[in-house]
Write a structure and sequence with these properties.
The complex is a heterodimer of chains A (about 250) and B (about 55).
Chain A (H helix, E strand, L loop, with lengths): L15 H25 L1 H20 L27 E6 L7 E6 L3 H4 L5 E4 L10 E7 L19 E5 L3 E13 L21 E9 L6 E14 L6 H10 L1
Parallel strand pairs in A: 2-3, 4-7
Antiparallel strand pairs in A: 1-2, 1-5, 3-4, 5-6, 6-8, 7-8
Chain B lengths: L1 H7 L4 H31 L11
Classes of the chains: A alpha+beta (about 250), B mainly alpha (about 55).
Pfam families (chain A): Sortase
GO molecular function, one term (chain A): hydrolase activity
Organism (chain A): Agrococcus casei LMG 22410
């Protein structure tokens, strides 16, 4: 029988090779960790930052109260929107299908807006403003840097898209998606896919990349305008209920 | 290197283990919330999401 503690393990000294080995192992773990983080955590972490920034900006846009029960959406001429300067915050988008989702829409489709952790969604400066006649077109990442449009392919017909600007709440309804090459600029035409026509109605178009993590194609979601509510009325009841249901 | 760190941390083995875990968690936090986001924004182009002529 050998006593268990009779022989203390000899203390090995660190050598150049052992330290180098441990450093290389560490580097491997860090790089592997980045890949895992990017695929599994990046959108949640960076998305939370965008969500928090959007929540703050939404509060600065106007009344935080919820509209009174029975407030109807108006379908008359919406207020005139004014465009903000390039890279500035313009509006906030809510899509209840994505859960508790709110993101700031910045002006112009610059990477500075799309990649921003304060914004994340970008308005095509060539398109219409919210509620305006024509096509209100917005781009956002599918994956990475918050990935606001990760679930863009999960929208169902009739899903509502809410836009809050300093003037009003605008409500759009999702119609259909389309998969197109990156050069298909007709999707953001005043009448989507019909560049030869003049604006005849109020559309919304959301563009993101497809497939996941790939620049090869684009996933496009189209919607139509259903109505608006002045900002003083407060948040549309339906949206407030949807957000509550998701929370 | 890591064996050296283990020796530097004072106390009995369970205190060492606790300090080790706390250090590890701190490193993971800095990586996840600060280092990795910076690396992603600085070195990795996420795919373009706009439609354009080019």
């Amino acid at each position: 029988m050998r006593a268990r503690h009779s022989k203390p393990r000899p203390r090995r000294h660190a050598t150049f090779a052992s330290v180098l080995g441990e450093l290389l192992l560490t580097a491997g773990v860090l790089i592997g960790g980045f890949v895992g983080w990017q695929l599994g955590f990046s959108d949640a972490i960076m998305g939370n930052q965008q969500q928090a920034a959007a929540s703050e900006f939404a509060q600065s846009l106007g009344d935080e109260k919820v509209a009174e029960e029975g407030t109807e959406l108006r379908t008359d001429e919406p207020p005139r929107e004014t465009a903000v300067g390039a890279l500035e915050n313009y509006a906030v988008m809510y899509i209840p299908r994505f859960g508790d989702f709110q993101r700031t829409i910045g002006e112009t489709t610059s990477p500075l807006v799309i990649d921003s952790l304060e914004q994340g969604l970008a308005r095509y400066e060539t398109g219409a403003l919210a509620g305006e006649l024509g096509n209100f077109a917005i781009a956002g990442h599918r994956n990475g840097l918050g990935g606001p449009f990760t679930e863009l392919d999960q929208l169902r017909i009739g899903d509502r898209i809410y836009i809050k600007t300093p003037e009003a709440w605008y409500v759009y309804e999702f119609r259909n998606t389309e998969y197109v090459p990156p050069t298909q600029v007709d999707v953001v035409a005043p009448v989507p896919d019909m560049p030869e026509l003049d604006a005849d109605d109020r559309y919304i178009t959301l563009t993101t990349c497809n497939p996941d993590w790939s620049p090869e194609g684009r996933l496009i979601a189209f919607g139509v305008f259903v109505g608006w509510q002045p900002i003083e009325d407060g948040m549309p009841v339906e949206l407030a209920e949807a957000l509550e249901g998701n929370a | 290197m890591y064996a050296g760190l283990w020796r530097i941390i004072p106390g009995p083995w369970f205190v060492k283990l606790f300090v080790f875990v706390v250090l590890f968690a701190a490193v993971v936090y800095v990586l996840f919330f600060h280092a990795y986001p910076w690396v992603m924004q600085t070195f990795f182009q996420t795919p373009d999401v706009t439609v354009g002529e080019s």
